[in-house]
């Protein structure tokens, strides 16, 4: 089956983004160049033709290009057109762009367009109640899509208390999820650098019809990839010409099955839009690996400015630094394990290893101390955590390793209390300056603040 839309009038070109369900599933997909001959190039568009091929949302005035990608204004569109022209001049004779590449992050002014550390672990959103009978389906689909991206070190958090006032001017959330109808896309999103008013995930009514082989969670997995900075995996667009700009940086090897790759653009994905191992690896290289017991490399790098300068995104080297040097220097490698504190409350270990043998303390905690239920930091006490959370006690019993994993992956993000000395929800709710700086539900940032600043400032950490 061919993509029939290449011969459509230009104003319809952009319609085949994620709306092109009917065109998916072809064994062979025609390329723009092949429309004419194996070596012919498509005609180069004038700016007026190029602009006409972009879709301008009537309500917001923003341009939507490449199916579902937002460009905030005319100046932005002109920049993309310049890149398109340059790309046309360098395009190889097969009519395909030369920049087909892997999971790629958007760049602005040469810098990665990503959420900063303080934000990546708490990106609150609302889901408008104006979805009406589709509201529950959207809430569920967003949860599923957010959970997929939580496999990497970002956390998109539903603020259901904002759903009744979920619009583009609600500053209690980072973005809003709202319904639209009659649009040429199934859904569209934004990039981290966009201004609040344009940070929306808009879901067209057509998304609630038959969109097989896609599902609404699949569509949203793709859209949420944009919201954390990822560009389309296919850089050859679904236009007659080779649409592409150069404002991105490659994170992985080319992955035709990426969740960010439209199937109809020579993608190999014929099912729903799911994250591939390459997507997860690429995203991890940008946002850093998930924390593991005792070692949270992203926490480590971002809370010590000398390490941030030295290691940047070299997560493996940073992790090795903690294991080989940082731990001996008494640096905190995570919130859940504090070697100095661990020794200070367990005299038997001091007797065995000495008062400053932090590396030995870590080697004791994993695998022995944790499984014995020993407290491992001022902020995390595994027995307290289980006893304070009856649902976890019922689920895990005395499986302390499972309890720790719950806190690392979910409990902290939910604001659950994990020690007698520190209650993260209390700490954030009683310090207005921290709420203003981080957001009312940014528990990971509040925890870091307490560890590195708040406690030393004499701030109260628990009721
Ligand atoms: Zn997209």
Explain this structure:
The protein is α/β, with parallel strands linked by helices and 463 residues long. The protein has two domains: 1-287, Collagenase (Catalytic Domain), CATH 3.40.390; 297-454, no CATH class. The chain has 18 helices and eleven strands. A five-stranded mixed sheet has the order 7-6-8-10-9, with helices on one face. Strand 1 and strand 2 (63-65) form a beta hairpin. It is elongated, with a radius of gyration of 25 Å. Bound molecules: zinc ion (ZN).
Strand adjacency order, main sheet: 7-6-8-10-9
CATH A-level architecture of the largest domain: 3-Layer(aba) Sandwich
Distinct ligands: zinc ion
What portion of residues is helical?
25-40%
Write the element-wise H/E pattern from the N-terminal end onward.
Answer: HEEEHEEHEHEEEEHEHHHHHHHHHHHHH
Describe the secondary-structure layout.
Elements: H1 47-53, E1 55-56, E2 63-65, E3 69-71, H2 74-90, E4 104-108, E5 111-112, H3 117-120, E6 123-127, H4 135-149, E7 156-158, E8 175-180, E9 187-188, E10 200-204, H5 216-227, E11 248-250, H6 277-287, H7 297-303, H8 305-311, H9 315-326, H10 339-345, H11 347-353, H12 358-371, H13 382-388, H14 390-396, H15 400-411, H16 424-429, H17 432-438, H18 443-454
Parallel strand pairs: 6-7, 6-8, 8-10
Antiparallel strand pairs: 1-2, 2-3, 4-5, 4-11, 9-10
Helix pairs in contact: 4-5, 7-8, 7-9, 10-12, 13-14, 13-15
Zinc ion (ZN) binds next to α5.
């Amino acid at each position: 089956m061919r993509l029939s839309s290449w011969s459509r009038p230009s104003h319809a070109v952009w319609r085949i983004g994620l709306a092109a369900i009917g065109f998916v599933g072809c064994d062979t997909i025609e390329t723009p160049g092949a429309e004419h001959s194996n070596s012919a190039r498509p005609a180069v568009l004038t700016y007026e033709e190029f602009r006409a091929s972009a879709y301008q949302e009537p309500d917001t005035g923003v341009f939507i290009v490449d199916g579902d990608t937002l460009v905030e204004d005319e100046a932005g569109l002109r920049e993309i057109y310049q890149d398109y022209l340059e790309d046309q001049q360098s395009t190889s004779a097969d009519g395909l762009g030369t920049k087909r590449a892997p999971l790629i992050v958007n760049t602005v002014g040469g810098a990665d367009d990503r959420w900063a550390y303080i934000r990546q672990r708490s990106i609150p959103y609302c889901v408008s109640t104006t979805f009406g009978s589709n509201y529950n389906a959207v809430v569920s689909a967003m949860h599923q899509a957010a959970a997929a991206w939580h496999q990497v070190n970002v956390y998109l958090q539903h603020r259901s208390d904002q759903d009744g006032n979920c619009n583009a001017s609600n500053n209690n959330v980072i973005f809003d999820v709202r319904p639209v109808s009659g649009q040429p896309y199934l859904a569209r999103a934004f990039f981290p650098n966009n201004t609040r008013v344009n940070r929306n995930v808009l879901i067209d009514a057509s998304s609630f019809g038959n969109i097989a082989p896609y599902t609404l969670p699949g569509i949203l997995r793709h859209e949420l990839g944009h919201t954390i900075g990822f560009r389309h995996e296919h850089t050859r667009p679904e236009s007659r010409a080779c649409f592409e700009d150069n404002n991105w940086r490659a994170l992985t090897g080319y992955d035709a099955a990426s969740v960010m790759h439209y199937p109809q653009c020579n993608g190999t994905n014929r099912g729903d839009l799911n994250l591939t191992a390459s997507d997860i690896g690429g995203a991890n290289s940008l946002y850093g690996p998930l924390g593991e017991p005792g070692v949270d490399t992203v926490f480590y790098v971002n809370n010590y400015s000398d390490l941030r300068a030295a290691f940047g995104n070299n997560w493996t080297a940073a992790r090795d630094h903690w294991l080989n040097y940082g731990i001996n220097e008494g640096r905190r490698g995570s919130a859940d394990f504090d070697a100095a504190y661990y020794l200070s409350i367990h005299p038997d270990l001091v007797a065995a290893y000495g008062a400053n043998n932090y590396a030995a303390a870590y080697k004791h905690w994993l695998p022995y101390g944790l499984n014995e239920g020993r407290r491992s930091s001022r902020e995390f006490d595994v027995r307290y955590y289980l006893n304070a959370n009856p649902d976890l006690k019922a689920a895990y019993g005395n499986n302390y390793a499972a309890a720790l994993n719950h806190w690392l992956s979910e409990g902290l993000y939910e604001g659950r209390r994990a020690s007698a000395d520190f209650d993260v929800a209390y700490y954030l709710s009683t310090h207005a300056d921290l709420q203003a700086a981080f957001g009312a539900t940014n528990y990971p940032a509040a925890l870091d603040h307490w560890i590195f600043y708040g406690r030393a400032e004499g701030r109260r950490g628990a009721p």
